[in-house]
Design brief:
Length: 172
C-alpha cells in the first residue's frame, strides 16, 4: 500500500499576526478582566454587601482542599474480620504498578482457605504516581486509595515508605 503525501498550503500571515501583538493584547484583556471582576467582588464582600464569590483560589492550608468523590489519595490496606490483611500476595498490584513503588514479600498462610499472605507490603509514596492501577488490579479488593489525605510530605526519604502496619491502620 503506497502512502501519498499531500502538501497543505497555509494562509499567509500579515505583519501583525507574525508579531502576535493582537493575541498578546487579547490575553492581557482576559487577565485584567478577571482581575478587576475579582477585585470588585472582594471589595463588595469587605463592605458587607452581598456579592458572588471572588477568586477561586483556595487559601491553603487555612481552607482544606475539597476533594472529589473519586479522588485518588493515599493508599490503605483492608483487613478481614479477624484483623489479618485481606491481601493474598498475588503480586498483581506490584506487577502492574508503572512506578514500581509497591514491594510485597509473600509467605504461606496458616489458613488453608488462603494460599498466601503478605509478610511485608511496602509502598513508596515518594515514587507513586497515584494512577490507581493497583486498586483496579487487586482481585480481592484489598487496597484502596480513599484515605482523603493529601499531605504526604516527610523530612526523610524513609518516611515516604509506608509499611503494611501503617497501611492497615488507616480508616476511611
Amino acid at each position: 500500500m503506497a502512502v501519498t503525501v499531500r502538501a497543505v498550503s497555509r494562509p499567509a500571515r500579515g505583519w501583525l499576526e507574525q508579531v502576535y501583538i493582537i493575541e498578546v493584547l487579547r490575553g492581557l484583556g482576559v487577565t485584567f478582566r478577571h482581575f478587576f471582576v475579582n477585585l470588585w467582588r472582594h471589595v463588595l464582600r469587605l463592605l458587607g454587601l452581598r456579592a458572588g464569590p471572588g477568586a477561586v483560589t483556595i487559601q491553603y492550608p487555612d481552607e482544606p482542599a475539597v476533594l472529589g468523590r473519586r479522588a485518588r489519595t493515599r493508599h490503605r490496606l483492608l483487613s478481614r474480620a479477624d484483623g489479618s490483611p485481606r491481601c493474598t500476595s498475588c503480586l498483581l498490584c506490584e506487577t502492574i504498578c508503572p512506578a514500581k513503588c509497591i514491594h510485597i514479600v509473600a509467605e504461606e498462610s496458616p489458613d488453608p482457605a488462603v494460599e498466601k499472605r503478605a509478610r511485608s507490603f511496602d509502598i513508596d509514596i515518594g515514587m507513586c504516581v497515584f494512577c490507581g492501577h493497583c486498586v483496579e488490579a487487586c482481585p480481592v479488593d484489598a487496597i484502596h486509595m480513599d484515605v482523603d489525605q493529601v499531605e504526604l510530605a516527610s523530612y526523610t526519604r524513609s518516611g515516604m515508605i509506608w509499611d503494611m502496619k501503617s497501611l492497615l491502620q488507616e480508616r476511611r
